[in-house]
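WARN no homologs supplied; continuing
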Amino acid sequence: MGVALVIVSHSVQLAEGVVELAAQMAKDVPLRAAGGTDDGRIGTSFDKVNDAVTELRAAGHDVAILTDLGSATMTVESVLDFLDEDESAHVRFADGPLVEGAVAAAVTAQVGGDLDAVVAAGRARELFN
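OK structure emitted
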């Protein structure tokens, strides 16, 4: 089915904004925002990230995840730790710049890149310099 992206941010608005921007460049790529805590505060939510990954995997997509700051990365690592071995082959963390990485990853997914290519694009820091 292709590669989908989950954008994890401490801010609901930031996650949704990055999704909005990436969607302008990659209209066919499923994108999910997982921003803020469960009660709408600044922070991250294991459940929001896990639910986004679960939804996209249930639809048959591989999933690349991008984050804004260190503790969001820890949340993603926790979600990855709870995946079984089969699922973990289909979900990866792309440790790169959030906005530039999300756009590069989404465009790579749009043109048919596999999970490895999408994650590599999301990690590339020099694309927009």
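The mean pLDDT is 95.
OK
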